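QUALITY CONTROL LOG
STEP: pairwise intake check
CHECKER ROLE: data steward
CRITERIA: each record must contain a sequence immediately followed by its structure tokens, with no blank fields

ENTRY 1 OF 2
RESULT FIELD BELOW
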Amino acid sequence: WATPQEAAFLRHVAEQYMLAQFEGRSDVRVKVQTGRLDPNRDYGGRCEGYLTAEIPDGELKSNTTVKLTCSHPRHPFTIYMPVAVKLYRAALVAAVGIPRGTVITDDMVNEVWLSDQVNQSGSVSDRSMLIGSKMKRDLKAGEQFRPSTFCLVCRGDPVTIDAHKGTLSLKTSGEALSDGNYADSVQVRNTKSRKTITAIVRGAGLVEVPL
């Protein structure tokens, strides 16, 4: 094997080893890139059957060193190879500009994969949280949805109050007195009794109160 081929093979081994550390992770996409190896160095061949890889300090970082060890008795060698790791996570963004007060529909939502270097604090990745919600402020095309930008139940909206215990369920109407998203607690006024109660958001215009 020519040494440029050996260098390319060793880089490939290091990259595949790093990718294997994230195997089974559906929440992230991974991109790895090794540092350059000197193509003029004699690495002693591909070392098939004798080559092992490890992360010396055991810690996965954005810049990780992979240790490649060839244990072949006639030409052993060790290489410490820097590998850059970039993680991408799913986030939902506006497919078009969405004005405040608009009810969000499926065609208004795009899924993208954003680098960890992009601020994703509070970003939304569950599409079911959005559909049927109402915008609390204007959102530009490509801008991320965050819980502060929409409400599944919004203050002043009419809501259905579902009071249940076991198989018994009673429904009545009410008015939301605060904003909330799925599983949030909101204040609701019962239209008939005029009493204010605390309820849990279960859907667009739907809140739940245990009996």
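ENTRY 2 OF 2
RESULT FIELD BELOW
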Amino acid sequence: MAALIYASRADDCPYEVALVTGDNPEAPGLDLAEAEGVQVVRMPAPAKDKSQYFKALQTVLEDHSIDLVALAGFMRILPDDFVARWEGRMVNIHPSLLPKHKGLKTHHACLAAGETVRGGTVHLVTPDLDSGEILGQVEVAVLPSDTPETLADRVLIAEHQLYPHVVSQYLSRTRDFDWITNKVGELALTLPKTHYQTSHGSPGWKVGTQSSSKFFAIMWNRHHGEESIGILVKCSGQDEMAQLIDADPDIYFRPAYYGPSDWVGITLDRPSVDWDHVADRLAQSWELVAPRRLLEAGGR
């Protein structure tokens, strides 16, 4: 936790620590966070019915508009419904080179196996213990004289370097044009009879044959003085465009030059993008421009 706080003070760090909480209101880490000027919520320790604790924790996280949860020594098993709410937005650090040595007493297991390399792993949190996508790892040599305690101390030093670095990388991807483009492409190419093609140098996706096709999605990379990275999709007309922008101005925008042709923009370089929503808009755009014969044949 301290490593994440101190790393956040670097000028180029893409995150800020907005809140520290936990399952022990007397934890020394909360005192440290308060001393460093970080918002702290001292939640009561979970009672026998732990579901009430996680409901309260969810409320606390929502009230503070948290985008990413970074677990740091939180040793409780998380309920599946809680994990599902934070899918792709909760990370953990584990003192082993996963998938090796999941769970507890990892240093004992490493030494018992006679391994010469140890390390730490940052991974996404899923319902399966220590099994989420690996985001980054660091290796630590095992010395002949190591005990579980000495090895743990050295791995901890490496973890303090790894965790802020990986969290920064993971959050920065949401503002990386290439990463966003690949994510959109994965969704666009699941639709029938689609292919990739650039439009005036911008990545785009068309429906139809190579010789006769229409664009249904075009990437937008801070064009015409705007700051956003997004995707342009077709809408049914100017009325729908106005309704979308009025209802969600942080998500939708009217793109210069494309707007009069019923293209609406969806901002994608922002936290907590709902990619299911983006997929739905891509599908609607696809249906608006797809050849009639393709729609009559069953469409998507």
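INTAKE CHECK: passed for both entries
DESCRIPTIVE NOTE, ENTRY 2: Residues 148-172 form the longest helix (25 residues).
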